[in-house]
Amino acid sequence: MLGKALVGGLAAVILTQVSPSAAEAAGSPSVVGRAEVRRDDPESVFVVSVNARGAGEGARGTFRLEHRYNGEVAWFDGAVDCLDVGRPVAVVTGVVGRVHKIGGMKRGDRFSFTVLDDGGRDRMGFASGAGAARCLGPAPKAEITGGDIVVRD
Fold this sequence. Notes:
The structure is a single chain. By secondary structure, this protein is mostly beta strands. It has one helix at 22-25, and strands spanning 30-38, 44-53, 60-69, 72-86, 89-100, 110-116, 123-128, 142-143, 151-152. It has a nine-stranded antiparallel sheet with strand order 8-7-6-5-4-3-2-1-9, with no helix packed on it. The chain has one domain (22-152). The radius of gyration is 14 Å and the shape is globular. Helix content is 3%, strand content 48%. Residues 1-25 form the signal peptide.
């Protein structure tokens, strides 16, 4: 099933900056943008969109992950329930809301990702299910394929 490679593994993505908001201007932590990564198979592309703002369990926002493969798109989206930023690293966690063709994912599952925004070749890690505890994320081992990840604290 499309997207099965995501579950229980790590992937990487590239986030691009979007215009700053009032929350960023006021100094609230945020992770905002859109990202993509190509895994071992050049036809397999993961795309993440995120708009997470706030601190700790008071953070709010949305996320979406797409897996594009052979002309098909599988995806899930959800609500952010924690953002922990210690620049240059941020952990975003949340609960999956809707799912379309992502194997092993269902509404109510947990999802987390960690971003390393060090000004060079940024990195990211993903976890889902039992490996995605609230406010905790995996090591950002996967190198992004280009672009930038925007983490503000």
